[in-house]
Every structure is written in structure tokens, then in C-alpha cells.
Amino acid sequence: MAKTKSILNQKSTDFLYEYLNNASPTGFESSGQKIWLNYLKPYIDEYFVDTYGTVVGVINPKAQYKVVIEAHADEISWFVHYITKDGFIYLRRNGGSDHQIAPSKRVNIHTEKGIVKAVFGWPAIHVRDAAKEETPSLKNIFLDLGCKSDKEVEALGVHVGCVITYEDELMELNDRYYVGRALDNRIGGFMIAEVARMLKENKDKLPFGLYIVNAVQEEVGLNGATMIARKINPNVAIVTDVCHDTQTPMMSKIVSGDLSCGGGPVLSYAPAVQNNLLKLIIDAAKKNKITFQRQAASRATGTDTDAFAYATDGIASALISLPLRYMHTTVESVHKQDVEEVIKLIYHSIKSIKNNQDFRYIK
Fold first, then answer.
1. Backbone phi, psi, residue 175, to 5°
2. How confident is the model at residue 36 (pLDDT cuts 50, 70, 90)?
3. CATH number of this structure's domain 78-166, picked from the four choices 3.30.1050.10, 2.40.30.40, 2.60.40.1180, 3.40.50.720
4. 69-114 confidence digits (pLDDT tens)
5. What is the Cα–Cα distance from 177 to 338, expressed in whole angstroms?
6. Which of 157, 175, 193, 251 could disulfide-pair with 111, CB 3.0 to 4.6 Å?
7. Rounded Cα gap, residues 95 and 323, in angstroms
8. Do residues 123 and 185 touch, judged by C-beta distance below 8 A?
9. Whether 323 contacts 244, CB under 8 Å
């Protein structure tokens, strides 16, 4: 992919870092949603927030025909599950948190009193028996807060149910990749916000209502998308999420396809993806010289696309994915130019949609 002039400005970049460095664990997304909405407000006509925290910015709210562009706002995390008498903490997952990467990680425990620092402890290599040593699992990973007792832990404001996120901030790698935790999928929230900015700054007039949706609770069952799809009941939904780059060691192209960071947006083929909407997106990519990749998703995409497609009487839905390395780790990595190409593809796709367009496959 040839490098082109960036469509991002300094305000965009500042927003990206503020938004990605903020914690937004599943079920506790409010602080991240406030950052996102504050950035989006100049580019929309109105907004609303649902019961569980999904935020929707709207352009042309009075239009009957409705188009959604959507990403999910939550990140994987942990819950405090059990506090031992000597002050150590065992955990439960909140989303698809990876137990194998936990040892030696630094974390933030979110309490009503504020952030409490802790670390995932692990026995030193000197004292482990290589022939019998345990691998990390939910039964043996634990947090150390530097406390001597459960009473001392509780005095810090930590209790069962407190949510825990990794302490890792966004960085750039070789001026080519964004690297950090929670790019899955707040980078999607960033991209759809940038689409709204481009529409405003280019003075584009859309013939339909555009609903920019940052949904909660994707990591635990597509819950936010399911709720908001029913509330909006749109005619069209274009969802963006991440997918696996398969070019690194230990990845199988036979299992996960041949997808590459730097290769452009990924378009999915799946029952939930409406064929005529997918064709519109492909045509928009070709017309605007946006290189794209393809993947087959079989029964389900595993993204909010599935929730939108089947939420009501059938919403014409499609998925534009961003290739990502090392999903659900603290070093999730995406190619900077892919980010911009996804933004451009969503932008040109929605501009290709006609008012009251009928996407039914058989007419």
C-alpha cells in the first residue's frame, strides 16, 4: 500500500491518544463514552444515551430513512473475585481476558475512591521446577497490592466486584503501527468519529439520518448493539471491528485466512452480511482506489454485525474490519494507514447510499 497524505489532523491525534489511554471496561464504559461524545458533539445535530451507556450521535435526526455506522466501546478486563486473608486477590474474567499474558503485568483497580495500583505476581524462574511448573490459569494467577491482610485491601476501597484493567498506554512502533491495549475496539470508535468529522468539514449533505453508534458490552455477547439496534431500528448498519492479522509467527492462515496489517480494510462474507450492501461497499472501495482484503466468516462474524442484522425484521448489515495483531493482549497492533483507509471506506460507502435505498436481495 503506497503511503498517502494523512486525513487526520492534530485534534484527531490528540483525541486518539486521550480516548485509547482511558479505561473503558465492559459494563463500566462511562468515562470513555464521555471523551468520545465530547469529541463528536461539534460534528452532529443531536445525541442520546441508552440505559446501559451506548452513545449515539445523530446527523439529520428527522429523516425517516436511517443509516448506522457502529463500533463497540468496551475493553476486556477482570473482576475482583476473592480476597485472601493475607491480602492477595483472585479474579474472574470480564470479557475474553487472556490468563496466559497476566503474570508480571501492572494493573489499575477501579474503586469508588479512585485507582488502586496492583501487579500480577508470579514465582521467580529460580524457584520453579521446569519439569513440573504450572502454566498460568484462573486458578493460580493473582494480584498483589502490597497489602498484608484482607482488611488492608478493603481499606483501600477494593472489594469483590471491582473492575481491573491493564496499565498500558498507546505508543507507535516504527512510525507504522499504533500499539496498546484496547484497540479492540476503541480504535473503531475513533474511526467512526473521524467519519463524522469528515462529513462536517467537507460540508456533505446526507439524504438520510446518520446514527454514529458507540455501543457497550460487545465483549460479553454483543449486548449493547442488540439493545440499540431495536431502539433505532435502522434501514442499514455498517459495523467496524478488528480481525486477526495472520502474518506473524504461530498464526495459521488455514484456520484464520490470509490477512495482513497494511493490506487495507477487510470485508467479510457471512450470512449476516447483506450481499447488496457488501457490493455497494466494494464498489465504493474500487471507485475511490481503496485497497481491501476479504475474509469468510462462516456462521457468524462474532461482531456487532450479527446483532444488527437480526435484531428486528432484518437490517441490511455489513462489516468493515481493521486487521490487528495480538488481539486481547496489551500490545494490540494496527497499521496506521489501515486506520485511515477504513475511515475513508466507511465515509465513501455511506455517501454512496441513496435515500430510501432498498437492499433486498430479491425484489
1. 50, 30
2. very high
3. 2.40.30.40
4. 999 999 999 999 999 999 999 999 999 999 999 999 999 999 999 9
5. 9
6. 157
7. 20
8. no
9. yes
Alpha-carbon distances, residue 208 vs 12, 201, 214, 351, 354 (angstroms): 26, 18, 19, 10, 8
| Sign of the C-alpha dihedral computed for residues 321, 336, 345 and 239 taken in this order | positive
Identify the CATH number of the domain defined by range 10-75+181-352: 3.40.630.10
Q: Model's pTM, two decimal places?
A: 0.96
Q: Where do we find the cell 431502539? A: 231
Half-sphere exposure of 240 (CA within 13 A, CB side): 36
The C-alpha cell at 131 is 519439569
pLDDT in tens, 118-167: 999 999 999 999 898 899 999 999 999 999 999 999 999 999 999 999 99
Per-residue buried b or exposed e for 279-293, using 16+ beta carbons within 10 Å of the residue's own CB: ebbbebbeeeebbbb
Q: Three cell numbers at 157?
A: 476501597
d(C-alpha 152, C-alpha 146), whole Å: 9
Q: How far apart are CA 321 and CA 11, in angstroms?
A: 24
Domain borders along the chain are 10-75+181-352, 78-166
User: Alpha-carbon distance 185 to 121, whole Å?
Assistant: 28
Give the single-character DSSP code of 220: T
